[in-house]
Amino acid sequence: MIPDPTAASSSSQHNKSTHDEANSSGPVNQSEDESGNENRHKSVRRRKRAHNGSENVKRKSAKAGRSSVRRAGGSHGKQRHVEAVTLFEVVTMGRSAMQAVIDDWLEAYATNRDSSLLDLISFFIQCSGCKGVVTAEMCQSKEDSEVMSKMVEELDEVAGLQYKKFLAFPWILTVTWPMDTDSVEYPLIQPGPYGRWFHSEFCDFVSVLVAQCQHSVIFDSYLMNTLISLLTELSNSYVRAFRHTCTLAAVKLLSSLAGAALSLSVSIENSQKLYEVQKTKTMRQKSTLQLERIQKKITEEKRAEIESMMDIIFKGVFLKRYRDVLPEIRSICMEELGLWMKLYSSAFLNDSYLKYMGWMMHDKIPDVRLKCVLGLQGLYGDPVLLPKLDLFTSRFKERMISMTLDKDNEVAVQSMKLLVLISKTCDDVLSPEDYKQLLQFVYSSQRPLAATAGELLFSRLLDTVAPASDTQDEISEEEAHKQQTFARLKALLQFYQESELHKHVVYLVDSLWDCGGALLKDWPALTSVLLEDPSSHSPGLTLEEQAVLVEILVASVRQASEGPALAGRSGAKKVMSAREKKILIDDCTKLTEHLLILLPKLLSCDIVASLMKIPQYFLPECSEAVSGLIAEMGAVLELHSSPAVLEAAARTYLSLCGEETAGCSVARAARDSLVHRWVDQLTALLGDSLEVRGTVTLDGQKHVFVLSYFFALMHPLSLYYNFCLKVLLEVLQCLCYSMLWSLNTSSETLTSREKAVAQRLQLRLFCERGHHCLSHSDLSVRQQAFLAVCDVLTAHSYQLHVWDPTSFGPLLYTPSPKLQRALLTFVCMHVFVGPDFSENSEVERLEDLHKRRNLLAAFCKLIVHGVLEMSMAAEVFMYYMKYYNDFGDIIKETMYRTRQIDKIESARTLVLCLQQLFVRLKREQESGGRAHPGVQTFTSIKELARRFALTFGDLIKFRECVVMIHRNGIEFVFQEFSQTPETPTPLYLSYLTILSEFSSKLLKPDKKTVFSYLQKHTAEHIIDLREECWQPLIYYRASLLTVAEGEDAVSYVSSDRKLYLPNRSPFPKQKLEGTTLTQYFMSLLSPSTSCITLNIDASVLSTANEEDDDDTVEVEL
């Protein structure tokens, strides 16, 4: 508000006349040039010196601009030497200077409270970032209706100012500031460390102010009344800066008052105890004067007065701001409410206040929900407060449980911690169904959430003692520990089996690692349970439990060796500290020393596939007992031939044969001996089988399976056509591995051109045999052959790209056209098929989908690596929308990769895809037959074009591509079209509607070019705009004529748009207003004319006025 002239002059006269009148009314300028309200020159250290004048009195002697917000965040060291400071500058000086200046302010307040109070008012307005003017006037009565009617908050657009006039009794304050205050970053929201630092210092100022005056002026019915009125009014302002800053100040003031009330309550309780002690004394020991003095301290008036202040702030600020539109304000309110209930529970911890915490747990902003959960953690963590939370717990328990599924990870983690706290302090709150739901979070993909759920699992199920027995006193401590460990393991195995997630042992172990690491790293106890004699009297484990325990052992070994990093689980620490690394090395050393000796004994059991993985995590420096382990592995491989065992053994041999491993020579010798022995046996078996031309025996199958993981078999595939199905699958995989190994070792094996030619011949023969297997009667054989051919061709293309041209390398090989068509047909027939809702279970359907995704990914790799023509991707792209949920990510990535290779050719592939779909639809419509599964509707094709258009994000980068799409589409519609009475319109004219989806991706100059290109193809044809058949052309033209950003063809055609050219339109403007584009073209027809010829030349696309060039288009008839 621009101050009223009379009030301003009156205030000026009062300031010049006497000091007392200056206290009643005066403007406080807080502009950037004159920060105002500065203290008189004084030393901060001289705290006991009387504060003879206020900041308002000495404002003229201060230097201008000292308290700007930017300089407030400067060096603290320099600011401590400033002698004359404002209260706003005190915030920049730290807590020690803050206490000194506030003490001086209190001394000045005792001398002249009106002027000092104006300084405090100015402080809060300055902290809001306001660089305006504050005018203060005295008010005689709160109930004056004329005064209250003037309490407004308005803006003056002419002057560019806004003002707020409000009552902070006994003051009527008018704040005037520029209109753009909301767009300015006030101190609380400034980015970087300054904003956080100012927030902390500002809160400290309020706390110190209350702490310094809690025994004196806080009860004078003047300071707190004015301050509460000020903060209440400013917290209700429409200006964000005022509302945010003063809400924070008000709730912090309430928190400080709660602390003062708590101190007063403690003092009253101590005085009552002392009074009771004095009353019990004898008459000689009693002191009447002391009793009276103690009784005076026992008064409830001050505490009631503080509680009244807190109630006013709560009702005036909190109840209005806890639902504020600004999330930061809502977070502040919820954070402080939790503090009030914990700090001063006698007044705030009841259902009247708890309900706000429960309501705001449904807030849409994560930080607000987080503050509610953190506040509840403080309440449930105090056993004294639990009885008062019973009703709240029963009312909002379901909400607290559901928040573990919150989309914000931090809210979910803290909600789980809250429930863990509730489970420890309140036994009967969570039901078994609740625990069953919460404990499943140990398999969560977020490690912090899973670790918290692991803590709940450990405290609920695993942290138990062994059952008491009659001979409890007789057993040793070691035996008691063994029984307790067995009981915990039994409970863990039972939980895992009941959860029915049998492929997530590593996630379960990782979740329990932080709280139950001692149990999981007890290698002697785990191995003793596995090696326990089943004939002993102690209860043992079933075969299923033994298998799960072995998985837990392997997972704990991996965790102790590699750390908590797991594929598919995020949130773990990426960098380990030196202490964590030391613990990791110590654990790895212990497990290596223990398991290297006991692992050969464990391998004698039937569960060997998982146990075979353990040596991969041993320390490479340990060479003791390696020979015994390798000998036992060889014996196991003579007995077991399952793929899981062979793969684990192959990886273990790879680890033990590394150069850094101490016993690598022993491991290599054993591996080579094993492989040579198998080769000899397999050769003999194959020779016998081929001589009798029959099928191989079971032993022969076994060695084929074994060799598929250890050796690459190279024999013509035709020799194995009569073999059983399993052998054929293994042979296909062997041949694939052989070709991949041959390509990978080309640098060592290809030393001449003859060897390169021989390799290419092998590749051609392999592709021919694989092509033949694509027509096999069994689906698994067809899929294996498809994957083998795709993998080998992809590897061959990769070797061609990375090969050094100066040396011998793989020769160029292109698959035959028949093989290319066969691969494409296979994908269309076996990948893009409808869902099977037969008797198959959900797990089987997911496995089938996984196989189909692998098949599609293998085919797309051929296109990306240039093995197949990019145009073959059109058949894949056309299923982008139809199978978006199943294969959308793979197809989209293929688009992205092909566009990186050749963006023009990739755009042509998209065009080819849309045109093929459109042609199939037209043929289906003309034939009138039954709908074919491969034919899509016109709406779906148009939607597919829209999704294709969305992939062209950068209009400049893909400018040529979009223009090419339009040119190709126009040629597709009008090329070879000759107009006759039987065919008045092109056959594919409706394709223009699909093509219009790409018009929004054209730049404005390109729209004119495409429009001109369209006119060249339509200039010689007679077009009847009244015919419905020409609507696609009108629609497409409208999409090209639109130049407004974000406006599509539909909005252009249907909107009331003025279409005329300045000074050149033959029609008056009044006639064109309210006329659509179609109506405009129709208005050009005379009543006696049934059709016209449109001729729009490219030269008329420019006008004399270049500024209107993008908004107008000329049409010549």
TrEMBL record:
<dbReference type="GO" id="GO:0000785">
    <property type="term" value="C:chromatin"/>
</dbReference>
<dbReference type="GO" id="GO:0000775">
    <property type="term" value="C:chromosome, centromeric region"/>
</dbReference>
<dbReference type="InterPro" id="IPR020839">
    <property type="entry name" value="SCD"/>
</dbReference>
<dbReference type="GO" id="GO:0051301">
    <property type="term" value="P:cell division"/>
</dbReference>
<dbReference type="GO" id="GO:0005634">
    <property type="term" value="C:nucleus"/>
</dbReference>
<keyword id="KW-0132">Cell division</keyword>
<comment type="subunit">
    <text>Part of the cohesin complex which is composed of a heterodimer between a SMC1 protein (SMC1A or SMC1B) and SMC3, which are attached via their hinge domain, and RAD21 which link them at their heads, and one STAG protein.</text>
</comment>
<protein>
    <recommendedName>
        <fullName>Cohesin subunit SA</fullName>
    </recommendedName>
</protein>
<feature type="compositionally biased region" description="Basic residues">
    <location>
        <begin position="42"/>
        <end position="51"/>
    </location>
</feature>
<keyword id="KW-0131">Cell cycle</keyword>
<dbReference type="InterPro" id="IPR013721">
    <property type="entry name" value="STAG"/>
</dbReference>
<feature type="domain" description="SCD">
    <location>
        <begin position="318"/>
        <end position="403"/>
    </location>
</feature>
<dbReference type="InterPro" id="IPR039662">
    <property type="entry name" value="Cohesin_Scc3/SA"/>
</dbReference>
<dbReference type="GO" id="GO:0008278">
    <property type="term" value="C:cohesin complex"/>
</dbReference>
<dbReference type="InterPro" id="IPR056396">
    <property type="entry name" value="HEAT_SCC3-SA"/>
</dbReference>
<dbReference type="Pfam" id="PF24571">
    <property type="entry name" value="HEAT_SCC3-SA"/>
</dbReference>
<keyword id="KW-0159">Chromosome partition</keyword>
<keyword id="KW-0539">Nucleus</keyword>
<dbReference type="GO" id="GO:0003682">
    <property type="term" value="F:chromatin binding"/>
</dbReference>
<dbReference type="Pfam" id="PF08514">
    <property type="entry name" value="STAG"/>
</dbReference>
<dbReference type="GO" id="GO:0007062">
    <property type="term" value="P:sister chromatid cohesion"/>
</dbReference>
<dbReference type="InterPro" id="IPR016024">
    <property type="entry name" value="ARM-type_fold"/>
</dbReference>
<feature type="region of interest" description="Disordered">
    <location>
        <begin position="1"/>
        <end position="78"/>
    </location>
</feature>
<dbReference type="GO" id="GO:0007059">
    <property type="term" value="P:chromosome segregation"/>
</dbReference>
<keyword id="KW-0158">Chromosome</keyword>
<comment type="similarity">
    <text>Belongs to the SCC3 family.</text>
</comment>
<dbReference type="Pfam" id="PF21581">
    <property type="entry name" value="SCD"/>
</dbReference>
<comment type="function">
    <text>Component of cohesin complex, a complex required for the cohesion of sister chromatids after DNA replication. The cohesin complex apparently forms a large proteinaceous ring within which sister chromatids can be trapped. At anaphase, the complex is cleaved and dissociates from chromatin, allowing sister chromatids to segregate.</text>
</comment>
